[in-house]
Design goal:
Layout: H1 7-28, H2 36-60, H3 67-94, H4 97-124, E1 131-132, H5 136-152, H6 158-174, E2 178-179, H7 185-201, H8 211-233
Antiparallel strand pairs: 1-2
Helix pairs in contact: 1-2, 1-3, 2-3, 2-5, 2-7, 3-4, 3-5, 3-6, 4-6, 5-6, 5-8, 7-8
């Protein structure tokens, strides 16, 4: 029954499982309990790690004929729907009904842009090149990281800022702004360390728990602006 599945496809399913767990946590557990939103955001970071791993395995080992389709469907849930549920859940805890409604509209826009981004990538992307528009995985990492940071270090209007961040990611996903692939081994190693501490920080109530997601949020800002730096250097 499952003979068409290869190792990268199984890892893609783990990406999907992480996304579903994040959603289930947000809709079944009291959002006012400590760390619920932070842990849900951290689980989406784990989904991003799984997505990166399945891409690596697909390049190293020949993937199955279902691989690209499974990957896109998993990404739609984990990096499209789940970050939207995360955004709305954060606003439910920290916002008025009017802001929650706006968050719902922003979430719908984000999902539409994410699905379009995935479809465009599958249809037109040339292997070995960079990205036109930020990948949906990167957008999800950004929303998850900023949500985790705001949950640990909240300040006035963080809900509105998070909505604006979501809309910004929606735009740059469907834009034709060129984003580079990260190939440098030392950068990957550094990101793994930051990711690890960010995920672990989701379990802590310490004031220092905002440091790792703060660093990762700053790195996301740099990546968002990287096309400007690259263009100026050329």
């Amino acid at each position: 029954m499952f003979k068409l599945l290869k190792l990268p496809d199984i890892v893609s399913f783990s990406n999907l499982v992480f996304g579903v767990i994040s959603i289930f946590l947000l809709i079944t557990v009291d959002l006012n309990l400590p760390n619920v939103i932070s842990v849900s955001a951290a689980i989406l970071l784990l989904a991003a790690v799984a997505d990166g791993l399945d891409g690596y395995l697909a390049r190293k080992y020949k993937g199955g004929s279902l691989g690209e389709h499974i990957d896109s469907l998993a990404d739609t849930v984990s990096f499209g729907v789940a970050p939207t549920v995360l955004l709305i859940s954060y606003c439910k805890v920290n916002s008025s009904n009017n802001i929650i409604f706006i968050a719902c509209i922003a979430g719908i826009i984000y999902i539409l842009c994410g699905v379009y981004r995935l479809a465009r990538y599958n249809a037109f992307h040339t292997p070995g090149t960079g990205y036109d528009g930020i990948p949906i995985t990167g957008a999800s990492v950004g929303i998850s990281t900023f949500t985790l940071f705001f949950d640990k270090f909240s300040f006035p209007n963080s809900d509105i800022i998070l909505i604006l961040i979501t809309l910004i990611f929606s735009y740059i996903m469907i834009s034709t702004i060129p984003y580079p692939k990260i190939h440098q081994k030392i950068i990957f190693q550094f990101l793994i360390v930051v990711f690890t501490f960010t995920v672990l920080s989701s379990l802590s109530n310490s004031v220092y728990a905002a440091i790792a997601p703060g660093i990762l949020s700053f790195l996301m800002i740099i990546y968002i602006l990287s096309p400007v730096f690259i263009k100026n250097s050329n």
